Model the fold of this input.
Amino acid sequence: MDRRGEEIELVGGVEKRELSVVDYDPAVRTPALDVHVHIYQREDEAITRYLAFRDRLRSSADDRALYAATKRDLIAQGFDDMNAYADAKTDVIAAILTRSGM
Done:
């Protein structure tokens, strides 16, 4: 199911990207692309949280350093499951979001 060319609105930036929606295959990963994309319905409250988190990291050198150090420490642990890695960042992300006013 390749739906190239569908109209997709990207929130958070105007950078043009070619997107392709295909059937999910858990065996296929593309770490060489160095991107992680979240897709949400319009008006999903998660969008507000992600943008607040992004803006906080852009405006706070301390939180940016904390998040980077946390990610480095977690990556060094060698998670086999990306969900476990993401879960391990939850407390730091929550603290940063609190400081962003969320």
Notes: Helices lie at 45-59, 61-76, 82-88, 90-99.
